[in-house]
Structures are given as structure tokens and as C-alpha cells.
């Protein structure tokens, strides 16, 4: 009779993977967990060049039909980094709330006839992205009305915040803390291109932005933080924007 003892092992032994395949637990996580359901939808519309003024005028007159359903954070016209474009941010408490808003809008005859039917022919494309504020950032208001806004979008290497989150935070706060611009919010993508983060900045003017950026480039602390973050960077895009008259953030 065969002795079964040589074939039987305690369950814990059978289930234990080889030592070489055991991974540290922290490698299974992509970063701090999202603590709130609130998210921000980024929308970018490209407008037919000959319809840019007409689209902004129409939106100025009819945006109240849209803001009756959900909160508009800001609405900007892109000046540098994209021609004939508008960028806007909408806040939602949950995906179910957004779904209800979209359903209600589609059934609103005033919104559909007075705005959508007129606005859509003026556009060449629409794009949206779902984002969350990163755990260490709050949505801020500019210190005063007026000024210009910069949206900086970073495409980071795959792996998530566990790989590049600390470096990104250090590079961003190294500009914000000493006043090289006013950070209004830092966001990471949930739907759209993944491993993408955005920072929204406020400056008194385009010239003031150029001045403080020049100073930042001579700050050794900033330079070191940026150099470290660049190790995880695949691409970057900057857009300078002006708030529209109807934007809550001006």
C-alpha cells in the first residue's frame, strides 16, 4: 500500500505560492482610495471657426436652461493651446445623479429647441472626461475676479498614483506653495485617458504668469521636484483660457 503521507500536505502549504512569486501588498494598490462619490466632468467642445462668436453668444443667453439641472463650476474660452475651443467643468454627486440630469435634459423642450438644435451644428467635435479631485487637493476659488486660467494636462506612465503620485504632488505643490501661480484644483482621470492628471491654475494676467514661471525656473527646489516628476511623464499639454461672462468662476 502506498503511504499517503508523502502526498498530503497541510492546506496552508498547498495554497502558499512559491517565494519568488509573492509580491508586497502595497504593489496591489494604485494609490489612496476615493473617499467621495463627487466627480467632475470635463467637457471640451471644438467650434467651427466661423461660428465661434455665435456659439458663445447663444451659450451666454441659454446656459441658464442647463444650470437649472446641475452645477456648473466654470466655463472658459481657450486662448492659447487650442483654437476655437471651449472648456467647461460640471459637478455631480454621483453617476445616478448625472444619469437623471441627462434624461431630464433630453426631455426638456426648451433646452432641446432653444439651445441644442442650434448649438450642435456649430460644433465640429465634443469630448468629455470624468475626473476626481486628487486626495490632497481641494477645489479653490480664485483670489479675485478676472485674470487668466491655465489648464495643464499630464499623461503619466501606466501604473497609477502608486507609481507617480508622490512625485506629481511634490512637483505641483512646489509651484503652489511659494506662489508661482494659484492652484485651484488637481484632478485625476477616471474615464477617458487613464493615468492622466490635470491642474487648474489662476494668474492675474498672461504676463504675470510668464513672470512667475521665469522665477520658478530659477528655484532649485522647484527644479528638483519637476525633474523627479518628469521621470514618470509621457506628455504634457498647457492651455491658457479666459472665463466666459456666464462662468461661475471668473
UniProtKB/TrEMBL annotation:
Domain of life: Eukaryota
One Pfam entry name: NIPSNAP
UniProt-listed GO biological process terms: mitophagy
Signal peptide residue numbers: none
Gene Ontology terms: cellular component: mitochondrion
InterPro entries, per database record: Dimeric_a/b-barrel, NIPSNAP, NipSnap_domain
Domain NIPSNAP: 40-137, 149-248
SUPFAM superfamilies per the UniProt record, alphabetical: Dimeric alpha+beta barrel (SSF54909)
UniProt feature coiled coil, ranges: none
Similarity remark: Belongs to the NipSnap family.
Protein name: Nipsnap homolog 3
